[in-house]
Amino acid sequence: MQQKAAEFEAGISELQRNINEPLSLKGIATQDNASGIVVELLLNNPPENVAELLGLTGARVRHINVQEGWATISLGSQHIIDKLSELDFVTQLNYAPPPIFRAGSVTSRAARALRANPIINSQTLDGTGLKIGVISDSFAQTTSVRDSNTTPAKGSAGNLSGSRPQDSGDLPAVVTLLNDSVSGTDEGAAMAELIHDIAPGAAIYFHAAGGNRREMTAAINALCDAGVDVIVDDVLFLFEKVYQDDIVALAAKNCEDQRGTAYFTAAGNDANFGHRYVYKDINAAVDDEASTPSGNDLHNWRTSGGSDGFMRFDVPANQKVYVILNWNQPGDNIPGSVGSQVDLDLYVTRLDSVDATVPGNSNFVARGAQFQGRTGVPSGEPVEYVVLDSGATAKTYYIAVEHKKGNKTAIPQSSAVPLEFKILYTGGRSLSAEYSFNGPTTWGHVLGEDILSVAAVPWWESLEFEPGNFTTPNIDPEPFTAVGGEQTVQFNSAGAYMPVVRTVPQFASVDGSNNTFLGSFSSTAPIDGEWDSFPNFFGTSAAAPNAAGIYLLLKQAFPDLTGALFLEAVEATAIDVTGSAASSGFDDVTGSGLIDTDAAYQYLANAFADTDGDGIADTLDNCPDDRNADQADTDGDNIGDVCDPENNTDSDGDSVTNDIDNCPNVANTDQADANNNGVGDVCESAPSTPSGGSGGGGGGGSGWGLLLLGLSLSIWQAYLTRSERKTA
């Protein structure tokens, strides 16, 4: 039991903090807060009645995956934690903070802004025959979506009908709810409205994101199993890692690999509010592991000259900011991975004083101090976070990063790689810090392999409208769209150091489009009929579903389209965004630029062109001008047999081409082969007595020798030809 208690140490400390201060969860997501704190359990060989046993502790079971060995539950007291520690099959308890949904504020001018109308009109494209999966907080739980005629019941799975957006024609008559939540803002429905406006023929599926990363992976898997062609989400979980693909990114990648499902996600709305530093010990001569900082192991924020362990951080009034610390170590929430071998902690105070880091001090604000391992003893997730709520007046805070255990300079996995960390400040606006923001703010599965992360540009900045009349003469991105660029994911899914560079966001889409219920009425530019009576949906939460809607149109036009080919087409044809924080060419704010659907269609039309009509695109066809659906290529030279000059040669003039002639240098139209050895009989027949000749020994012998040599060469050449044919 003592060992179990030690294993629960990190989770319990976080749970107690949040159970005692439940309001600290408000504003991240309202999901299930009233039901208690959501935690994640790791299970080892759970019994068949695992759900019953967990329920007997007083916890509410949310989700169980016996095969992968995990469960999520809701609880509200220390008593339940004590009961859980008595269950042998429960090996680890982790606090699971609720997700952040990437909403900014709330026409639908997206199709026009993204230049989709030309192909919609000329090619009659509307997404018919395709399915899209949406993941967000909820779909049909608010009165903005639900009325007395809406079915199924709130929070229930089933075919949604009779909702307000369906009655007004802003959603299809049937939406498949694989899972919905009883709390949330119904941002999923707003995203679906944007998609339906671009691709009204597509079927829409929805699954709530859930309360933690594991429930999010279950959402992805469920949509994947339902056979959707594309998934789009607007979700960030606070504990998602940036130096290792987390389980959400791995689930999205697996869905694409197994089912060919493209995956889009919102890049984020945190502007440049991030820091990235190599850890610099304020006093390298002293290394202690005290429960509260001594001041010796704080990170020195100054890059040169002197020392400063506390960075001033200013938050305007009425803002809630989530400060998330992540460092370059793997985590142990991925099956087969190992945990962190470095333990860092995060502190926020009201004074730049070591004394203020002690809980109970009048100037103490918050800390993130979960349990992680040390060098050679990996454990835990390399992440800490705190929540800052400024209230009615602006606040000044001080942020400190404390090194507690493990290597201080190089990481244990590679002596050539320094220990570094990133901090994301999400949820706030007009933030300022003593030391300039210098880090990326694209976070979590936004960095995942083959995931398409989408930046935001206001619709009126499109060349189809009036980009020169606003912020700058050029196309401007949204000021809040997240900063990305090249980022190194350092660890593979097993926790081994194996760095790969990812560049995000890949491209931009538009936001600020109309929907029926979510967003702002006056945050858009007063042009093209605005301000009208419909709210405008802003944020990369809106840009991502608009991009996914464009994917549906192009997928309908080109059924073999994949996420990778879509990205290739967009990167080759995007409209460069150069205003404000963006720059010419590929940049770290809008990637390759704003989607140009018409140009992307033309690019794909060339890529998928099928001149000979054999069902194989010219770019993939080994004989693009001659029909050859079987793509036969006997000699393996990537030129189809039907158009390969070598294969069409008839050296002996017997009307049988060399590629199929069993004796290509001796005429044998009948191709007789008595012993079925692949060599024609005429190449194996015994020679007849040569006519003429004096019978002189020398002359006769010389004649026979030349004849036998000729036959030998002929047979040998035929043998080589047959061998090459079999090898090919």
From TrEMBL:
Biased composition (Polar residues): 143-166, 654-678
InterPro entries: Glr3161-like_dom, Peptidase_S8/S53_dom, Peptidase_S8/S53_dom_sf, Peptidase_S8_Ser-AS, Thrombospondin_3-like_rpt, Thrombospondin_3_rpt, TSP_type-3_rpt
Domain Peptidase S8/S53 residue range list: 531-586
Native species: Spongiibacter pelagi
Domain of life: Bacteria
CDD domains: Peptidases_S53_like
GO MF annotation: an example: serine-type endopeptidase activity
Keywords attached to this entry: Calcium, Hydrolase, Protease, Serine protease, Signal
Protein name (record): Thrombospondin type 3 repeat-containing protein
Region named Disordered: 143-168, 620-698
GO terms under biological process: cell adhesion; proteolysis
Skewed-composition ranges (Acidic residues): 632-653
SUPFAM superfamilies: Subtilisin-like (SSF52743), TSP type-3 repeat (SSF103647)
